[in-house]
Each structure stands twice: as C-alpha cells, then as structure tokens.
C-alpha cells in the first residue's frame, strides 16, 4: 500500500503545473511614432518564419486584435485598446525542454505620440516539481534597449556600462543607489587597485549587459572611484579590488546589512570555474534577474495579458449596450467578459500558489545568511 501511495504521489507531482515569472522588463521609450515602432519590432520577433505559427491574419501586422490557437501551431494572441491606447501581445511556445511552456507577454502603453511604456514579462509553466528555471530576457528587448532612446529607472539604457571615475560621478552613483524611484538592481564591477581600464573587470562586462539589459543597471567603478565610494558608504558597503556587488532596490546603508546587497570577491570569482555546469556570469545573471518585488507591484507596472483581455471584453460589452445591440449579442459579449475574468483569476492563483511555496525557502536562506554574517562579525 505504501508503494501504491508513493506511485500516486509521483503521478500527482507529474501532473502539477508550476507557474513562475522568469523575468520582467519595464522601460520608457521615446521617439517619433514610437508606439507603432515598438509594435512592429515585437511582431517581427513573434512572427519570425522559424517559429511554428500558422495562419497569421494580415490584420495582425497592423496591430489589430487577433488569436492563433490551433493544432500543430504555437499560440499567439493580441488585444488592442483604444482608450487608453494600449496593445498587449502574448506568445506561448515549447522550446527544447518539452515539460516547460514559455509565455512571453508584451504590453505597450502610449503616453504621447513620442513616448511609450514598454513592458515584457517572461513566464514559465513547468510540469512536475518546482525546479529552478533558467532566467533570461527575450532578445528583442536588447535591440530596443540598444538602438532606441530607452530609459530604466530614469537612466538611459546602453550596450556599454556606466563608468564611474570622478568624485562627482561617485556622488551621482550614491544618489542613484539610494533613490526611492530605483526599482531595479545595480551591479557594480570594480577594477584592480590602481586600475582605470574598464576591460580589467573580474568577468567580461558586455556579455552580462547583453543578458540583463532592461532589468539591471551595470556600473564599472575605477580604483580611484572605489576609494571615494568607500569614504561615502564604508568598507562593508563598498566594492573594490575586482569584486562585484549587487545593490538591490531600496538600498539604505543605515538600516541594511551588507549581505542584503551581496558581494563576490575576486578570489571567489576566480575559484568559481565551471565545475558546477555554469560560469560565474551565468550565476550572476540568474541571481540578478530574480524578481524580488511583490507580484502585485509588478502587475501594477505591467498588467497581465489576461487583465487587458478582460478590459477589452468589458469595453466591447459596454459599447454594444450603448449601441442598442440585441440581447443575444449582449449575452455573448458578457460571456466573453466572464471567461476572460475567470482566466485572469486562474493565472493569478497559479502565480500566487508558487510564490507561497517559495516564501519558506527564501526565509530559510535569509536566516542562514544572517547567521553566517553574525558569525563572521564575531570572528
């Protein structure tokens, strides 16, 4: 009986679906006719001929609402709102690991003819145990961040790091680290003592930027700047001698522990190797792309696709009612709205369940880190 119960437990685990947010991007992008420009870039990526999407409607290329959900095809869908001027796109696809379904959600909201909010959320649904998922940012984000006039937390995005050398630049960095409007991590790469060449970081900076652009601010701190940064923040919160430190949002040296903003020394990075099957760049990328803010905050910045779909269904029903459509048509539209609301609730519940499952592990890791730090202080 015990064996039978174990078999049932394994079968239940294999049937369970775990949904996790792998990464999320939120940029302000400026330029002429920028709303349409961003739309075209997303559609070009989503409708790439190498992707298995069948029977793409011609109107989809114009930014209209559409849905592709048929056999032997990936799933894609878009919703267009006129008031507010908003366009949401969703693509679901299976990649090499067939036990995982990757969903890319894109939202574009027009602020003015020359400015738009551009958001991208990557979600992974996997069958079985809630194993760690590989975290990445869709490659079309890189093209937008590197070629458009794009901003993250008010700072322009770039393929090059923010180089901090002078005292004035150190002051600007400290102000940005402590700024309440900063919602994304700052990863600071320091140079060897006496070093001024940005190429002398412990790991190459450009590959890291390419993998994290749109979510992470990457800084290179010269040797002189490291001394100035230490004067302002203290040794425990500074970064120097080729170490790499991640300053998480909400940085407050007066209230936080140094472990709240983890640092990797040059010796640790050098000893990392790839024996664990990944390089230190892989590890740093995975850690900095982890979503640490509450899910409700993330969804206020970029509403889920299902939320936008429900709004579209509600607007369609209200417009039909004002236009005097017959009861059968209003009933159909009300049913569409109800279905969209149900799907939104189910998606939200799946994400909430997974967040609750992760919380005990996160608290356990935090207790271990704090205990280790206390022991090191005593030593």
Total helical segments: 11
What is the N-to-C order of secondary-structure elements (H for helix, E for strand)? HEHEEEEEHEEEHEHEHEEHHHHH
Terminal Cα span? 53 Å
How would a textbook summarize the main sheet? 8 strands, antiparallel
Please provide the count of β strands: 13
Would you identify the regions where 5 or more consecutive residues have pLDDT less than 50?
Answer: 4-13, 340-357
Outline type:
globular
Average pLDDT works out at 83
Kindly report the spatial arrangement of strands forming the biggest sheet: 2-3-4-5-6-1-7-8
Question: How would you concisely characterize the structure shown here?
Answer:
Helices cover 42% and strands 22% of the residues. It has 379 residues and is an alpha+beta fold. Helix 4 crosses helix 6 and helix 5 runs parallel beside helix 8.
Please characterize this protein's 3D structure.
The chain has 379 residues and is an alpha+beta fold. The chain contains 11 helices and 13 strands. It has helices spanning 2-15, 34-46, 139-147, 167-177, 205-212, 223-233, 266-272, 280-288, 295-301, 305-322, 327-378, and strands at 17-30, 66-68, 75-81, 86-93, 100-112, 115-127, 149-152, 155-156, 162-164, 186-190, 217-221, 244-247, 263-264. An 8-stranded antiparallel β-sheet has the order 2-3-4-5-6-1-7-8, with helices on both faces. A hairpin with a 4-residue loop joins β3 (75-81) and β4. α5 packs parallel to α8 (280-288) and α10 (305-322) runs antiparallel to α11 (327-378). The termini are far apart. The relative contact order is 0.11. The model is unreliable at 4-13 and 340-357 (pLDDT under 50).
């Amino acid at each position: 009986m015990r064996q039978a119960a174990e078999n049932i437990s394994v079968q239940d685990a294999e049937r369970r679906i775990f949904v996790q947010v792998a990464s999320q991007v939120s940029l302000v992008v400026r330029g002429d006719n920028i709303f349409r420009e961003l739309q075209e870039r997303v559609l070009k990526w989503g409708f790439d001929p190498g992707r298995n999407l069948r029977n793409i409607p011609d109107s989809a290329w114009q930014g209209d609402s559409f849905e592709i959900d048929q056999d032997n095809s990936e799933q894609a869908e878009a919703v267009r709102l006129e008031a507010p001027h908003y366009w949401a796109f969703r693509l679901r696809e299976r990649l090499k690991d067939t036990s995982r379904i990757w969903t890319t959600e894109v939202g574009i909201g027009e602020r003015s003819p020359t400015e738009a909010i551009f958001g991208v959320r990557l979600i992974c649904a996997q069958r079985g145990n809630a194993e760690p998922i590989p975290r990445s940012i869709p490659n079309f984000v890189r093209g937008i961040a590197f070629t458009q006039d794009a901003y993250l937390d008010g700072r322009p995005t770039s393929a090059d790091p923010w180089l901090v050398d002078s005292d004035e630049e150190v002051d600007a960095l400290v102000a940005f680290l402590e700024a309440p409007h900063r919602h994304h991590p700052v990863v600071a790469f320091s140079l060897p003592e006496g070093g001024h060449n940005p190429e002398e970081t412990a790991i190459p900076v450009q590959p890291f930027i390419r993998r994290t652009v749109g979510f992470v601010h990457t800084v290179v701190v010269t040797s002189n700047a490291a001394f100035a940064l230490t004067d302002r923040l203290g040794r425990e919160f500074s970064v120097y001698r080729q170490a790499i430190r991640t300053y998480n949002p909400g940085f407050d040296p007066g209230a936080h522990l140094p472990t709240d903003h983890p640092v990797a020394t040059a010796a640790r990075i050098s000893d990392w190797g790839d024996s664990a099957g990944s390089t230190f760049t892989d590890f740093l990328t995975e850690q900095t792309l982890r979503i640490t803010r509450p899910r409700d905050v993330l969804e206020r910045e970029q509403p889920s696709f299902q939320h936008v779909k429900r709004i579209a269904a509600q607007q369609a029903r209200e417009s039909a009612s004002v236009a005097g459509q017959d009861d059968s048509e209003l009933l159909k539209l009300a049913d569409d709205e109800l279905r969209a609301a149900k799907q939104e609730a189910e998606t939200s519940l799946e994400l909430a369940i997974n967040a609750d499952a992760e919380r005990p592990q996160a608290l356990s890791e935090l207790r271990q880190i704090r205990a280790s730090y206390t022991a090191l202080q005593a030593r």
